[in-house]
Amino acid sequence: MIRELLPTDQINATLHEYRTGTYIPGANFEHVIALEAFDMKVARICLDGTLDFEIRLRASIAHALSRLDPAAHLDQGHLDASKCNKPISKKPSSPTKFEAWKRTVDEAIKNSKPGEDFVAHHLAKYPGQPLPVWAVTEILSFGSLPYLFELMKSADARAVANDFGFMHPAPFGKVIRAAADLRNYCAHGSRLFNRRFKREQSISQGDTVGPMLDHISKPDYSLTSAEGKRLYVNAAVLAFMLKSHSEPSDWPAKFRDHIRSFGLPLTTPSGHHVVTPERDMGFPESWHTNLLWH
Q1: Contact 283, 259 (CB under 8 A)
Q2: Residue 76, exposed/middle/buried by CB under 10 A (0-12, 13-18, 19+)?
Q3: Contact, 97 vs 41, CB < 8 A?
Q4: Where does residue 29 rank: exposed (0-12), middle (13-18), buried (19+ CB within 10 A)?
Q5: Which residue among 27, 29, 74, 186 is least crowded, i.e. fewest CB within 10 A of its CB?
Q6: The pTM is what?
Q7: How far apart (Å, rounded) are the C-alpha atoms in residues 45 and 61?
Q8: Residue closest to 25 by CA, chosen among 8, 1, 4, 11
């Protein structure tokens, strides 16, 4: 970020070569340290937010299914049969999604037995009985929760989506996976400020309740390229879900205040700031005035 850009005709997109070996005049190691410190705190704040969402999501899924049966997560009668019977790939020997899901549950139970007293207690006192859904959702990894959500019947999945301000299960299922990606980037110390995320977030009007995400449903809402894969859209959707839940959260304000504190005192020869939230992180102009962040 602190090296000069190559002329357009010298850029090699295949090799991701966009910059020269010449540093911007005035750049020094303190700028690098400041940018890293800012990014590390972004990661800590986002990790807190994804953890908050993860806990709420586990509870919401468990509540929706436990109303049907303590073992609804293992009963196709309480799940969407067509989704359960769909193979996970086109290979002739491919297991169904339900079979793959049961293996995921078995693996989670096996891995949790040494350290989770409630799992050991259930297995010892109720041999042969499946671990109830409210216990299973506690031991699943965050990345495994979408597999269960996507097997739920439409009405039950919609109830979970509604808890977080989404009208329909399909877009909410995609959001869960994106939130898990964000959590993993944060937990493993990956760079966030100018990252292109793996999944593109695309929110349409009508996907969510109210107007708080309308500003990211319009094309070119930011100066950043690939805006749907940048930090802002991931943080905005997370903030929306936490604000929409019945329990209040101060996470949006924490995120807003940290981003607004950013200011790298380094400019290009043409007078532009080297790094800005609007140009590098997918933030719209005047983003902080949106009701989402208040």
Answers
A1: yes
A2: middle
A3: no
A4: exposed
A5: 29
A6: 0.92
A7: 25
A8: 4
Q: Which helix (H) or strand (E) holds 251?
A: helix 251-260
Write the CB contacts of 106 (distance below 8 Å, at least 6 apart in sequence).
none
Bridge partners of 273, per DSSP, are 267
173-203 confidence digits (pLDDT tens): 999 999 999 999 999 999 999 999 999 999 9
CB 186 within 8 A of CB 53: no
* Structure-token pair, residue 120: 């050991």
DSSP SS3 for 144: helix
Distance between CA atoms of residues 204 and 36, nearest Å: 33
CB 85 within 8 A of CB 96: yes
pLDDT in tens, 144-160: 999 999 999 999 999 99
Which 3 state secondary structure label does DSSP give 208? Answer: strand
Please name the helix (run of DSSP H) or strand (run of DSSP E) that holds residue 146, with its range, or none.
Answer: helix 145-149
